[in-house]
Write a structure and sequence with these properties.
About 35% of the residues lie in helices and about 25% in strands. It is globular and about 60 Å long. The protein has 2 domains: about 1-115, 3-Layer(aba) Sandwich (Rossmann fold); about 120-285 and about 320-335, Dihydrodipicolinate Reductase, domain 2 (2-Layer Sandwich). Helix 4 (about 75-85) runs parallel beside helix 5 (about 100-110) and helix 10 (about 180-190) packs across helix 14 (about 315-330). It is of the alpha/beta class. The two termini are about 40 Å apart. The relative contact order is 0.16.
């Protein structure tokens, strides 16, 4: 039996992970650790396991950890887990900045532990259908991409009072918390971009962090990709748009703004010929439900079956580097090279 400990329920996704670990064959949810004892005790009771207030004891009771703390604590928890030789599943973003990710990488390399970065879009069948369309050249040469990724929780007082919108705890606002999904998706489809320009705004909600942001990435191949992230999308339809020289692909139902109101077909493709859309027979996991559960299932497969992680620490760093450079571009008003 593979034992997994969840380290913190600060991030709501821990609830989805706990549900999945309990459902997986050969996996035991060994315990919950949380620096907020009341929160940890509540989670442990709900998921039928024990609360362990001592981090060292929690690490001693498991084979792997799933980290769902405030982003500020990712570095500390990853270091402790790596030192104990425990496999790691880490919520996004990997850390508040690239320097912290590099420190995590140093700790993980020292003991050789398995590290899986949580990027659930990589596990969505709709994402794989879109990637296949790109790889097969169905759209010709891709030149323009638009990604909108975000939610509407900024309108809720509860969200505006939580750690997600405190810069010291989260590291950033909509561009980091939501935009990192889009950044990884772009890297997964097209590889690392060359440069970025960006703008951010906190004017609507007046928070410590931005509630809206747009970054425009460019690739040496000529691709221009607009990534817009927000805490204030009341509704939306097409979340991903790909435009090529001979075709276009539009994908919806893959963020909170579009999940509840967008109906099939979720992926539409135009590839020349008659001026009609072709509907792809795919339903996004986000629309089906259990979108975030897929991360926990993949991590369980890594530990139990020796499967390779679908997203690595290097992937987490690459996406965060894109976002960090976008922040720098917004702050300076100048284009930033992505670099390495």
């Amino acid at each position: 039996m593979i034992r997994i400990a969840i380290l913190s329920f600060a991030h709501y996704h821990a609830n989805f992970w706990a549900e999945e670990f309990r459902a997986q064959d050969g996996i035991e949810l060994a315990c919950v650790w949380d620096d907020d004892a009341a929160r940890g005790q509540d989670a442990a009771a709900r998921f039928g396991t024990r609360f362990e207030p001592d981090l060292g004891a929690a690490l001693g009771a498991c084979d792997g950890v799933a980290i769902c703390s405030e982003t500020r604590q990712h570095l500390m928890l990853c270091r402790e887990a790596a030192a104990a030789g425990r496999a790691i599943l880490c919520e996004k973003p990997t850390a508040r900045n690239v320097a912290e990710v590099d420190a995590i990488a140093e700790a993980a390399a020292a003991t050789g532990v398995l590290f899986m970065q949580s990027f659930p879009k990589r596990l969505d069948p709709a994402s794989h259908a879109l990637r296949r369309i790109v790889e097969e050249g169905t759209l010709g040469k891709i030149h323009t991409v638009r990604i909108r990724h975000g939610h509407f929780y900024g309108t809720a007082e509860d969200f505006r009072s939580r750690w997600y919108v405190r810069i010291g705890e989260s590291g950033g606002g909509a561009l980091l918390d939501e935009g990192v999904h889009g950044a990884d998706f772009l890297r997964w489809l097209f590889g690392p971009p060359a440069s970025v320009i960006a703008t951010t705004s906190a004017a609507t909600l007046g928070l410590e962090v931005e509630d809206n942001a747009t970054a425009v990435f460019t690739w040496a191949s000529g691709i221009t990709a607009e990534l817009t992230a927000s805490f204030l999308f009341a509704a939306g339809s097409d979340s991903v748009e790909l435009y090529g020289t001979t075709g276009t692909a539009l994908l919806g139902g893959v963020d909170l703004a579009s999940r509840d109101i967008t109906e099939a077909p979720f992926l539409r493709v135009y590839a020349g010929g008659d001026r009609v859309w072709r509907a792809e027979d795919v339903v996004p996991r986000f629309k089906q439900g259990r979108f975030h559960h897929a991360n926990a299932a993949a991590f369980a497969a890594c530990l139990r079956d020796g499967a390779a992680p679908p997203a690595t620490l290097a992937d987490g760093r690459g996406a965060l580097l894109m976002i960090e450079r976008a922040y720098q571009a917004a702050a300076t008003g100048a284009r930033q090279e992505i670099g390495a």
